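Lab notebook page, bench 4
Experiment: in silico fold of construct C2
Operator: M.H.
Input chain length: 101 residues
Purpose: comparison with the prior construct
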Amino acid sequence: MSHDKDDGDTDPPPTESDETVIRHRWDGTTSPSMAVVEAVAIATDREPTELSQLHRTINADALDSLITGETDFPLEITFVYDGVTVVVDQSGAIEVVVPGS
């Protein structure tokens, strides 16, 4: 949608957040929990070994079971890990939201 600017119009206010969203895809070659660690490492420009252990944030085995299991409804899991918000769904999509500085 585009807006033409009239003389009386003002620009929309800036967004309140300067967050960056990084999208990653779990391809099944590793566990979903390992893919989360890799995605967060990439999004935060760190090595996976520099991140806190995932199991201190979420039960990695439960995450893997929920994401790889079959359900009668769409499943999306959201949690905060090492200062970023992570959203994982059964399609293999992983979204890492990095807050602005």
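Observations: DSSP finds two helices and four strands in the chain. The beta strands are 20-25, 76-81, 84-89, 93-98.
Next step: discuss at group meeting.
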